[in-house]
Specification:
heterodimer; A: 488 residues; alpha+beta; Arc Repressor Mutant, subunit A; 3 domains; 9-stranded mixed sheet; elongated; B: alpha/beta; Amidase signature (AS) enzymes; 11-stranded mixed sheet
């Protein structure tokens, strides 16, 4: 694909994101919400769809949904209700899903994302609440349904509250899609409403993507891409799909409206089997539940208690801590990281930028090597602050501090403890240093004379000699001061 | 309390209230009652086929436990020890529950529905589970997957439906009282055809948790009894708010028995012009019901002619709403988790073969009707319009209730009909619900009380009294006044020949 051809097309993409809520109990019954476990151990007559069972809506799930909707700048419906979405599937106990249809809890929102391409405002069409299905386990063959001998059903997940977020087709590239998912994940994490683990399926992203010749007003043929299990896969899958569609269009081929599955291993999308007939879900209002009108006080209470959004946090980090855009992005990459940084900055009490530098220049290197997250490291925020304070107090040099940090990272010990253990504390006692400085001046008379003659560049050589004599433990600043006072 | 006369001294003809009094007075034990009912059922159920499953052992065990509680002064309620039997759509832990369908054959529920649990909590020993039209769809029990029940007044005729096992058993003295469900008349019509009292309570008064669903927005459990007093008492036992049912009305049931003998003097009773001129009502039914109106007037009620223009659309609306909801409610019978399973080459063929084998013709018809009515492009014209008719019906009733306290109508346009008389013509069967269906659409309360037998065929006729939503108190008071003055209940002529 040549750059010239790429300029000839533009991409349109909209996302459909499913978020499993981390409520204590399921959407319509009292069963516990959890991941994994022995199959069918977190079930009851309601989430198994046994005859005679009835749903009772989980108020916390409604509240979490409103939190998400409000954080996405949505309007909250004055009047909302659940519908039944009817279709047969063995992992769905009632063969209808209790979902929302024309009156979702949240609608008409937007969220801003920025990156190398600039800034995009992505419209949020709707935020609605529904129940999750169970899981089919296909036995025999490759483990896929086509060549399996039979399937088993696990209903532990059935009835978990699920929020669906649908965007407008405002996303113009795979990079923007990736950025949107990232931003959303960050927002959900900050709201504390979901585990947002894509690998475990608590955050699931489907994309509708189409490509059209630049300047064309009609959208191109839309393809739904599924099975993207990480933020990275969202980027990879859509890049592949965008390229595939462009190549096809450039070759004058006709695209088919279909669902395609992303294959993590090959990085390509393959056509899924087309659904049997057209999907007519025969939606109708769920008669087992009553419509609800969220009270204004309830909604406003939730709005008032919302934590800051990722965007607000980034702005605050830039303003309050004087951090540049790249630092801000890194330090706000996850809520845990941001909180860790702020904890360290608070404990340090000094210029937070220094803490940021230490995290990004040194701590991240160690984390990357160990392959762990900041929150998982043995060093706590206050301990990093302690380390930087030691350097500020000139107890250890910056160079030594890196060694100390390595030891702290390995053991979780405090900075001063490590410094003592390693006998690394700098000689900052001018009395003790003075004798060594005098010795060095005597031993290097020629160099000393040059300095006396005004050749200050030579002072560095003398400092080096002192450091050598103290095996690096002397406070270089202090040595410098002493030499100057004695020779100038 | 009505005096027992003649052969009514036999235990099985006693009302629940009489049995409760006898238990309290120590004149009888629960075990003796249970044994008498077992003997009665042994004698009649071969003809009636009211039961789908008898739980005689459990009944006797429950009765013994009840006697022990009474002896220890720990009776759970005044009715502790008075047995009952439930329509087979009340989910009962450990007792197979089929909803009259082959598709649920062999399913043993792991839980008790609210109504079953409340009856047990009141100390009522369980006699078993009763026959019904499959998934409560029908007016004759001819749609049962296990063969029909028969009317004890004439075993060549149907006992009504869908709660036909319940009506046959209560009418024949096999139990003093029983629970049915009423979606479009399924308690009131069988009560009418068997000469019983049948109540459709206000929607949301009795919990639907543990009631195998037919049409969720219309289904409502209701008692079938031989006296008004028993119906009120039974509603008292099972009614009231249930947090497991989101459509349950959040309030307690009042004491219906208090002031039940207050009479109808000064009560305004509406007679619906459109109903009185409705074609298809048997002359004998019309005659008996007119006499009933006159009796109410004689007792001091003011009869007021009212108009309910929307009622003519009731059947049409009902036969869109109910099938639509049932098409969705019955989707869960897919052979994956419970019930019948026919083998298939894949899950889709397993499910469709199971549904083909397990559902009867009427259920299939309604699933198809409902699926069609909800389909894209048809929703507004069918389901949407039917819901607007519901709104009209509710508004019509509201308007009428500004002038009246109750509305009186026939319960059913006909007396019990012979087997096969209407099976070939579903529409004729559906029209049997013409007077009862609007009440379900609107959610109001209604009762059917016997008003004698038709001069045409000697079979029972029912008078329906429709109350405002949650005004069961007025409804029971009028029904009781009528029943007491009429003197049919508890008398030999109010009892079937069987």
């Amino acid at each position: 694909m040549s750059a010239v051809t790429e300029d000839l097309f533009e991409t349109t993409c909209g996302l459909e994101v499913h978020v499993e809520l981390a409520t204590n109990s399921k959407m319509f019954c009292g069963c516990k919400v959890d991941f994994g476990g022995e199959p069918n151990t977190r079930t009851c007559p309601v989430c198994l769809g046994l005859p005679g069972s009835l749903p009772v809506a989980n108020r916390t799930a409604v509240e979490y949904t409103m939190k998400i909707a409000l954080a996405l700048n949505c309007r909250i419906a004055d009047y909302s209700l659940f519908h039944r979405k009817n279709y047969f599937y063995p992992d769905m106990p009632k063969n209808y899903q209790i979902s929302q249809y024309d009156l979702p809890l949240g609608y008409a929102g937007h969220v801003e994302i920025s990156g190398a391409w600039g800034t995009t405002t992505v419209g949020i069409t709707r935020v609605h609440l529904e129940e999750d299905t169970g899981k089919s386990i296909h036995v025999g063959g490759s483990g896929r349904i086509h060549d399996s001998t039979h399937s088993l059903e696990d209903f532990n997940r059935a009835g978990t509250p699920l929020v669906e977020i649908v965007t407008e087709p405002d996303i113009g590239s795979p990079a923007e899609a990736r950025a949107f998912v990232n931003e959303l994940r960050l927002m959900l994490e900050g709201l504390g409403v979901s585990d947002v683990r894509m690998e475990e399926g608590s955050l699931r992203v489907d994309a509708n993507i189409s490509v059209r010749p630049m300047g064309e007003t009609e959208y191109g043929t839309k393809v739904e891409v599924k099975n993207m299990n990480s933020v990275r896969s969202v980027g990879r899958a859509l890049e592949h799909e965008e390229r595939r569609q462009r190549v096809a269009l450039a070759a004058g081929e006709q695209l088919v409206q279909e669902t395609r599955h992303f294959d993590e291993k090959t990085g390509t999308t393959t056509s899924g089997r087309t659904k049997e007939g057209s999907s007519d879900y025969r939606y109708f209002p769920e008669p087992d539940l009553v419509p609800f009108e969220p009270a204004t006080e309830w909604v406003e209470g939730i709005r008032a208690a919302l934590p800051e959004t990722p965007a607000q946090r980034r702005e605050r980090f830039a303003d309050d801590y004087g951090l540049g855009a790249a630092d801000v992005d890194l330090l706000t990459a996850t809520t845990a990281t941001a909180e860790w940084f702020e904890g360290a900055a608070r404990a340090y009490e000094g210029e937070a930028k220094k803490i940021a530098n230490w995290i990004m220049a040194d701590l991240y290197g160690l984390l990357n090597e160990a392959g762990i997250e900041l929150a998982e490291s043995k060093i706590g925020p206050a301990q990093l602050a302690g380390l930087v304070k030691l350097v500020d107090g000139k107890s250890i040099s910056g160079k030594q501090a890196k060694v100390v940090l390595g030891e702290m990272f390995a053991t979780g010990k405090d900075a001063d403890v490590v410094a003592k253990e390693k006998d690394l504390e700098q000689i900052s006692d001018s009395g003790a240093l003075e004798a060594i400085v005098d010795e060095v001046i005597a031993a290097n008379a020629e160099a000393a004379d040059k300095v006396r003659a005004g050749n200050l560049g030579t002072i560095g050589f003398l400092v080096g000699q002192v450091m050598k004599k103290t095996r690096g433990q002397a406070n270089p600043g202090l040595v410098n001061d002493l030499l100057r006072s004695k020779l100038t | 309390m009505s005096e027992a006369t003649g052969s009514a001294s036999e235990l099985h003809w006693r009302s629940a209230t009489e049995l409760a009094d006898m238990l309290e007075a120590g004149e009888v034990s629960s075990v003796e009652i249970a044994e008498a009912l077992i003997a009665r059922v042994d004698a009649v159920d071969g003809d009636l086929h009211a039961f789908l499953r008898r739980t005689d052992e459990r009944l006797l065990g429950d009765a013994r436990a009840s006697d022990e509680r009474r002896a220890a002064g720990d009776a759970r309620s005044p009715f502790d020890g008075v047995p009952t039997a439930h329509k087979d759509l009340f989910v009962t832990k450990g007792v197979p529950t089929t909803s009259g369908s082959r598709i649920l054959e062999g399913w043993v529920p792991p839980y008790d529905g609210t109504l079953v649990a409340r009856c047990a909590a009141a100390g009522l020993p369980l006699q078993g589970k009763l026959n019904m039209d499959e998934f409560a769809m029908g007016s004759s029990t001819e749609n049962s997957g296990y063969g029909p029940s028969r009317n004890p007044w004439n075993t060549a005729t149907v006992p009504g439906g869908s709660s036909g096992g319940s009506s046959a058993l209560v009418a024949a003295g096999g139990t003093p009282w029983s629970w049915g469900t009423d979606t479009g008349g399924s308690v009131r019509q069988p009560a009418s055809l068997c000469g019983l009292v049948g109540v459709k309570p206000t929607y949301g008064l009795v919990s639907r948790y543990g009631v195998v669903a037919f049409a969720s927005s219309l289904d409502q459990p209701g008692p079938l009894t031989r006296t008004v007093e028993d119906a009120a008492a039974f509603l008292q036992i099972a009614g009231g708010h249930d947090p497991m049912d989101s459509t349950s009305i959040p309030r307690d049931v009042p004491n219906y028995l208090e002031g039940i003998n207050g009479g109808v003097d000064g009560m305004r009773i509406g007679i619906v012009r459109e109903f009185e001129s409705a074609e298809g009502t048997q002359p004998g039914v019309r005659a008996r019901v007119s006499e009933a109106y006159q009796r109410l007037e004689k007792l001091g009620a003011d009869l007021i002619e009212v108009s309910l223009p929307s009622f003519e659309f009731g059947i049409s609306a009902y036969y869109l709403v109910a099938p639509a909801e049932c098409s969705s409610n019955l989707a869960r019978y897919d052979a994956v988790r419970y019930g019948l399973r026919a083998e298939g080459v894949d899950v889709a063929s397993m499910t469709s073969r199971t549904r083909d084998a397990g559902f009867g013709a009427e259920v299939k018809r309604r699933i198809m009707l409902g699926t069609y009515a909800l389909s894209a492009g048809y929703y507004d014209a069918y389901y949407g319009k039917a819901q607007r008719v519901r709104t009209l019906t509710i508004n019509d009733l509201k308007r009428v209730y500004a002038d009246v306290d109750l509305i009186a109508t026939p319960t059913s346009p006909s007396t019990a009909f012979e087997f096969g008389a209407k099976t070939a013509d579903p529409l004729a069967m559906y029209l049997n619900d013409v007077f009862t269906v609007p009440v379900n659409l609107a959610g109001n309360a209604a009762i059917s009380v016997p008003c004698g037998t038709s001069p045409d065929d000697g079979l029972p006729v029912g008078l329906q009294l429709i109350a405002k939503a949650l005004d069961e108190t007025t409804m029971f008071r009028a029904a009781y006044a009528f029943e007491q003055d009429f003197g049919w209940a508890g008398s030999p002529e109010g009892r079937p020949p069987l």
